Amino acid sequence: MRLPLLLCVSVCLCAAPGSGAGADQSCTDLRQFYTGKGFTLAGVPQSEISGEHLRMCSQGPTCCTSTMEENLAGLTTRETEGLIREAGRSLQAAFNALHRSFDTYFTELHSQSERSLQDALSPLGPLYSQNTRLYGDLYADLRQYYRGSALNLDETLSEFWSRLLERTFKTSTPAEVSLSEDYLECVAKQQETLRPFGDIPRDMKSKVIRAFVTARSFVQGLIVSGEVVKKVSQVSLSLECTKALMKLIYCPHCRGMASVKPCSNYCSNVMKGCLANQADLDPEWQNLIDTMIQVVSSFSTEPSLDVVLSSIPARIYEAVHYQQQNTDTFTAKVYQMCGTPGTGEPGTGSPVVHEQRRKSSSLTALEYKPSPTAGLRLEMQVSDLSSKLREMRQYWTQLPMALCSKLAAGGANQDKCWNGITKARYLPEVMGDGLANQINNPEVELDITKPDMTIRQQIMQLKIMSNRLKNALDGNDVDFQDTSDDISGSGSGMCVGGQCSRSRPGLYAYSPDNNRVRGAATSQSHVCSLTFLFPLVILLLQR
């Protein structure tokens, strides 16, 4: 009995080392994966080695050396940054598509309105045929304003009505009466006080300004949103994020668990930690999107955008009709203010004007009737813009989940997924969104007191653009001048051929970094500030 027992023990002892050697798993799969990622096999082990050297993966048996761990960590960072940029490009493309859609719609409205000038104003006779440039210049100015020109729209429209008054007065005056440039200038100055066109210029001005201010601001909001996405998507991931990504994505390969996908909650914590600063965009991002949706809704509020643009020729015709109906009364007041033409004496003469001439050129009132198809197209435009903008509202908080959808295991495999150490359930809770909520993130170590400054600057950009859009909703003429020095300390400006302009650039080259509303209140505020500071300076000097 003793001999068989000894033989059995001997066999077992002899078999033990062999079975231990057989337990050392081959690294063939990892070697193929590693070379497939573009790395060489130099120094790559044939079978598992001890993992005490690992700094990111857990220190168990492994197929990865320190160099391999560093290479794969760099690779996973580049791949993840690539996914973030790809998602950003998709969102940018969506903003560009919205921009093209609205720009096409608006410019077509503008062009159709301009083309209808001849049909609407041809009954004016010489007042139209001899002054086509005056009307054409109005549309050109409106187009330039929409494109971002530094025009003051209020002044532009006032100038148009003053010039039109000159022409109508000149047309209604007999040819033998000489009207000097000074006299016509005096006539033009009566536009605001004598109101020869009734309330039409004032009413049309408020509606046109509101339409163009909101349209231009909306387009600018789309451009700014796309630029913010572009800049934020290019922000590099931190070193701590690199370590967490390596542990999430490629450490399973080092452990021989290449087929085991990360647990979804584990992936969420890693991505929420890596994109914590980006998630802080969310409040101002949603605010901007919501404000743009409000602007879009305002396009269909009466008077709708299409009605305002399409009715411009009819409103001009209506104004001239009103002036001709009241030409005697107006001419008498002009003679009182500017004198009889050729005499220079105010208050003299009589407007024997030319009752017959007025009657012969009298006009019938023209009623503008909006096109039903135009209203339907605007309704479709508003609906499409609003729905697509709503889809973008939660982009920054949904980005971690979007990335994990490509990496993590499905819901049914949460007990058989990679939890950072082995194949088992992930127990820690999922963190909230944003930097402040990552203080207890078990996967990514973050200093929540040190936010990313590039992203903070973009948050400010979103806030500024939201304020501009709110001003536009109130009908305020918004100045898009580049004042990026106020935000980042180094203005970008717009430079072409070495020439750098600090005035408002064109629409496609905006760098919107501050909010300024045109008007007298700006200059008054500077005066008030100086008035306040002057006594303070004197007091300090006396001390």
Tell me what the structure shows.
- This protein has 543 residues and is mainly α.
- It is built from 24 helices and 4 strands.
- The strands form 2 sheets. A two-stranded antiparallel sheet has the order 1-4. Strands 2-3 form a two-stranded antiparallel ribbon.
- The longest helix is centred in the N-terminal third of the chain and has 50 residues, at 66-115.
- The relative contact order is 0.12.
- Cell surface proteoglycan.
- Keywords: Cell membrane, Disulfide bond, Glycoprotein, GPI-anchor, Heparan sulfate, Lipoprotein, Membrane, Proteoglycan, Secreted, Signal.
- Residues 1-22 form the signal peptide.
- One of its GO terms (biological process) is negative regulation of fibroblast growth factor receptor signaling pathway.
From the structure above, extract its key features:
GPI-anchor, lipoprotein, single chain, mainly alpha, membrane, two-stranded antiparallel sheet, signal, proteoglycan
Task: Describe the main β-sheet briefly.
Answer: 2 strands, antiparallel
Main sheet: which strands, in order across?
1-4
In DSSP terms (H or I, runs of 4 or more residues), the helix count works out at 24
Order of helices and strands: HHHHHHHHHHHHHHHHHHHHHHEHEEEH
DSSP E strands, number: 4
Distance between the termini: 114 Å
What class, by secondary structure content?
mainly alpha
Strand content: under 5%
Q: What level of helicity do the residues show?
A: 55-70%
Low-confidence spans: pLDDT under 50, at least 5 residues?
Answer: 1-22, 347-361, 481-543
Shape by Cα distribution: rod-shaped
Mean pLDDT: 81
Taking all Cα atoms into account, the compactness measure Rg is 36 Å
Signal peptide: 1-22
Membrane topology: Lipid-anchor; GPI-anchor
GO biological process, one term: regulation of protein localization to membrane
Function: Cell surface proteoglycan.
